[in-house]
Design goal:
Distance between the termini: 95 Å
CATH class of the largest domain: Alpha Beta
Number of domains: 4
Strand content: 15-25%
CATH topology of the largest domain: Nucleotidyltransferase, domain 5
Largest sheet: 6 strands, mixed
Number of strands: 13
Shape: elongated
Amino acid sequence: MSWKATDAVNERIKMVGQYLSEGDSISELARWYGVSRKTVYKWVERYEQQGAAGLEDLSRAPHHPGGAISPAMEERILAWKEDKPLWGAPKIHAKLQGLADCPAESTVSNVLARHGLSRKQRRRQQATPSQSPLGHCEAVNQVWCADFKGHFRTRDGQRCDPLTISDAHSRYLLCCRGLGGGIGSRLVQPLFMATFREYGVPEALRTDNGPPFASTGLGGLSPLSVWWIELGIRLERIVPGQPQQNGRHERMHRTLKEATAHPPCRTLRLQQKAFDAFRAEYNHERPHEALGQKPPASLYVPARRDYPEGKLARRGYPEEWVKRTVRPGGRIRWQGQEINISRALCGREIGLKPVGEGQWAVYFESLALGALDERKGRVEPARTLQWREPEEK
């Protein structure tokens, strides 16, 4: 058995001591300690070169790992990180694809960690999620997402409310505009109009339940959502208090905040320049993991349906339905009674479909608003967004 004593390092010290002080030969020491003559020579030589520290075991790790990258590649990785400080290893690795010496993603991650340029994300506990509301979104322009990123103030004290619109399938950021005068429909509608003119009209728009997208009135209608319905756009609203149902858009907001508002710019005009630069990079350069590390622009194409210029065409209702025009104040006249509908529908025509004795289903275009009960003299609102099929028109 090699190294007859209990501790290898102590045995080496004693062996070298015998060699130096007692003059034992290499062969005698090898026989006494049960090792080869080559081993005795090795430890004597190490002690003469390094002292007692030379008798410690050395790491078995190779001095030059087989997967080591060249200094030039490491500099390239660090340059990408300096240019794109919010990008992590997956995105930087995607940009290095195609190079002959492209390292593995784990190697890129190790380089960033070694230089203190990576950060570990804390895992947050979450409630059990429901099925993804955007699971049906399988093509571009099927669903657009719109929201206001939380407001903040530029360094000169002006309030900034960034309105963002994105395509849910490709993640393409269609609009990012900082508003400084409020978030009312009159300010927001021109931005949607400009976006529709540039990219076409989507099949559906997904928003939260706050203004200017929705209201607490019948059907949750607001002037803005009424206009969307007239354009043939279906409304999708997340459940109140469930922002994860618009999770793709919310995740983009986090990236937007990190890139443009830490810290905010000096003025609203400069802040908008930062938004514009972010949108260009986000759409055309930044790889997206959910898209196979491709940028959104590689998938997105404008919608086939163009924005209709001029007066919007009315779709009308079936002949057997009763029609009423919503009067000022948001009411209709029905059998001598004033029935509340919605102020957002003033001047618009609604359709009432007979469904039973004294019972009428109330519609605006294709949206079911609720049920009119003649005996109660009011409309019971629909609990969820419901749409009639095209063949019912």
